[in-house]
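Reproducibility note. Readers wishing to regenerate the assembly model reported in the main text can use the exact inputs given here. Chain order matters: entities are listed in the order in which they were concatenated for prediction.
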Amino acid sequence: MPSYELAMVLRQMSRPELVSVLKRTAESILDKGCIIRNLENLGTRALPHKISEHGVVHREGSYFTITFDSAPTKISDFMEEFGRDIDIVRRRIFKIEEPEEFQCTLHEEMLPPAYRKDVQEMIDIAKRKQKPKFKYNSGLDYYPFQK
Amino acid sequence: MLRTTTGVLSRLTINETKTTGSAFALEFVRWRRKPRWLPVAKSKLFRVPERKQQNADEKAELMRLHNNYKLQMRSLRQYLREEVLRLNVTTTADHIVLTPEQEEAEFQRCMQENEAWNQKIAVERNERLQRELEEKAVEIRQRLEAARIREEERLERADEVVRREIELSKSFITRDKLDTAIEQALANPVDYNFSLDLKGNIYRGRNTVPGGKGTPTLGGANEIEVQQTLKASN
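Running the prediction on these inputs yields the following structure tokens for the assembly.
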């Protein structure tokens, strides 16, 4: 099963209500036969803008993430179910992917253009694309006759 | 088009006398004839052109010359053909004439030489095929070995994943642990925000102030200003 992350913003609530909403959400995930890996609280603070959801205007919210493993077919069900929950202001499910491995090449990128490997390759390509020019083999670096 | 063309033609004939004195009255005629796709004119449809009469003496003279020419050419061609046939039969310029015994001997010699060549090439070919066979066998063995190693690595990676997941499964949130996990999460908010300064120092936390908790040690007021601007931009 692929891993997903449910990021959601809950409306401003008292602590017991918050606990019940989180419990409801987590149990609905568990009921579908999924595995919850982690549950994180990202804090309570003012929303970036006022949000009108389920007929109520919200200005503050609590941010939570739930990491879980689930079948891909159930994701749309979750979205639909959490969309009906009036305590959830915003919800979105992301797929968790393995972070790509990379190496820092900043030192090479900061070199002057003539020393950069990709620029040198481009110059080589341009040289290869140039048409061969006819040589007169006259030993002179100019054309001796009138053109 | 025909109408304009004929107009031009008729004007040309009229103007020929006219233009001799004047340099202004130049006319250019592009089409001297009607186009090919137009049919015969109605007025010329049933016209039969008159046959020209030839002079009888001249006709007889032309006929005589024609007959002479044909006769001479025919005899010349016959002579040349007979000469080629005769040469083919008598001369041996382009091929060597052999007796049947000699021919047989020559054929045998050629056959023997051919056999020798064939044997030599067969030896070389067998050597090459043997060598190629051995190379192929080595390559197949190498590929089998590589496949075995690949498979082992794949299994090892899979085992690694399984081990890691089993290890992680201890921290999975089950129904029993759900209440404590929620309490834990509410008690410990996580903050992934951070900011950087020009030296690459990382300031973790959304509201970390310079010099506060979790700030790297710094020297100089200048860098503190930089941090403050960074904070302000965040």
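We highlight two features of this model. The helical segments of chain A are 15-31, 75-84, 106-109, 117-129. Chain A touches chain B at residues 15, 18-19, 22-23, 26-27, 30, 35-44, 64 (CB under 8 Å).
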